[in-house]
Specification:
Layout: H1 2-6, H2 8-25, H3 31-42, H4 50-54, H5 59-75, H6 83-99, H7 106-124, H8 132-156, H9 162-190, E1 199-202, E2 205-208, H10 209-227, H11 233-251, H12 260-278, H13 288-295, H14 314-324, H15 333-358, H16 371-376, H17 382-399, H18 401-404, H19 408-411, H20 427-433, H21 437-453, H22 455-461, H23 476-497, H24 501-517, H25 527-539, H26 550-564, H27 571-578, H28 586-590, H29 593-599, H30 607-623, H31 628-645, H32 650-656, H33 661-672, E3 676-678, E4 685-687, E5 691-693, E6 698-700
Antiparallel strand pairs: 1-2, 3-6, 4-5
Helix pairs in contact: 2-3, 3-6, 5-6, 5-7, 6-7, 6-8, 7-8, 7-9, 8-9, 8-10, 9-10, 9-11, 10-12, 11-12, 12-17, 13-17, 14-15, 17-21, 20-21, 21-24, 22-24, 23-24, 23-25, 24-26, 25-26, 26-30, 31-33
Amino acid sequence: MATSTSGGGGARPWRTALLTLRDESVASPTPLALLALLRRLLLPPSSPSLAASAAALSPHEVGSDVAFLAEKAAAVAPCAGAADALRGVCHLIREVMCKTNTEIDSSGWLAVLTFLHELVKCSVEGACLKAHCDRTSALNTLSDCLQILRFLSKDLGRCGSLTENSHVLRVLILIISCLQAELNMTDKSNGSGISSHISVSTNNKNYNTWDMEISAFSMMEDILCKIASSMSEVLWQSVVEVLRKVMDSVTSRNLIIESSIMSRFYTSFLRCLHFVLSEPKASLSGHVAGFVANLQMFFVYGLRSSLPSAITPKENKTDSQSRSSGRGRYKPPHLRKKDGKTNDSLDDRSSDSESSRYDLGSSDSDLSDTDGYAKNGDRFRSSKARLAAILCIQDICRADPKSLTSLWPLLLPENDVLQQRKYRATLMTCLIFDPITKVRVEAASTIAAMLEGQALVLTQVAEYKESSKLGSFTTLSCSLGQILMQLHTGMMFLVQCETQTTLLAAVFRVLILLISATPYPRMPKELLPTVITAMCGRLLDRNSNKNEHYALLVNVLSCLEAAFAKVPPSSDVFGVLIDHCAGPSLAQQKSSVVVILLHCIEEEMHFSVRCGALQVLRSVVHNYPSCANIIWEKVRDIVLDLLQTESFEDQKCDANFGPPKEELSTKGRCLVAGIKVEFSVNALKYCGRNYFILRNFTSSP
């Protein structure tokens, strides 16, 4: 071999040791004899650096030797007193990988992973609970293990098999358990809460235990992203258990530290939890309560010092924005130069913070990964931890919605929804107050998932009663009723005040599900009419006629359709329908619900808007037939005008557009006479220049 010829002297120590080990292993020595051989050949204190000599060999030869060495070291793991030898072999393998280009095939990596598993299990796991010197040595070894796993990840890349990734995951589970045991031990010895920095000195370098755990969770996250859907149930259970232990340990003192390193740790850890919960392999019922209680603590992570205690009225918001539009508080000219840039930057930062706290609206740029952080001073990227925690709640909701029902009071407010929770945040806190749009959108999606999964339970159980005295017992049904009431309040606020289109779409989806799931006969009688009135007010928005707002109008009409379709029919809703229809003034008539809906099906409106409005009118006629005579006269006139505007071929009229104009007019008169006529959802057809007509009317006495 060319490499060995040119550098034979330099490679001799490594080659001699490994060839001797191979020759001695042919006779299948006992584990004790093999352990003595490893100590004699590879770990003498006065031997030259084997790792340096391995650099003179070819990558393939070194890889084969490393795999063989790992295989033999794993065989001596059961021997008493083998810990020092195993740690020495681990350190040697790490040094070789750092100094050489090592090529290891799949079977060789499996041998290395088996060795690391035995090493952590036998010689490190127990040492983490012993004296300080043993714990220091164990942490150094864990650092070596993590570096070897990084080389493995770099070598395998995206091509690792399920078997290889599963082996790496098992090793990471043990490493994380050991690191967490060390953190708990240091925490207890300090006696002052969770320690944010633990240093271990080795080779004049400081290793931060939190950094090591972050590295372990980052690798676990990468692996779970690849194999979460295909790993075994046993391995899935092991991952869930270690994540549960870490979370309980982190939150045991109700202390979530806000710092750069801890933000990275929480984010990496919660992302691992998200991948596991999104692909459940078994029941989560035993973990739901613990996970939810702990995840809820992250809803305002990084925001406790920057959010208001309640929503500021619009006039105050405007004032604060005008004050913060400048460069901070006013300073006399003679003081500005003395303060210099440092004080100006501080004022700028406080001014920006003040503006962002009271500005509940947001822009599309907040959807990026960077704009929101700079705008809101999220220097620790804490919003990533909040987002991951919300995604975990969403996963739990989809995996086990039944177990989540009793925990709704932890996740959703029962009172004062428009006030920021200082000590217990909710999903509505995230939806209304969070400065990052991504977080708000996912909070809305999680609430929607909760409503969707428990719609039947809410319909059968929830009821609203006036809140009783503080401290008195509240049944789950009353608690759910109060939550539904607060959800209505929060959603109505967002519908009326929010302008960001992506968030509005998520809010309207929540509102549709909320309307469908709420038992309005057991809620305050004015609740549903208030929703309908607020939605109609949004239809009157002047900007709603612009092309970019058609989606908003369609969403509003979908909410109205769900509201008018609620059964049993409500006399209060009927009162809203007929209110102002025959008012004394033209302004009153134009503000009536019926007139607003009829305006949405006129000629100049977009197809999707007209389709949505006609479906709302269909629900109105179906649930409140006595309103039909008010609606049909106007609908008939609009449809006839459209028919007269367009010229159609005879075959199109016969095939697509149902009865002729005379029959439409006849059925209109029948409807006015009191015969029930139902609107058909398929009664609309796209014609030429965005014109649509009604078809397939069916009447029955």
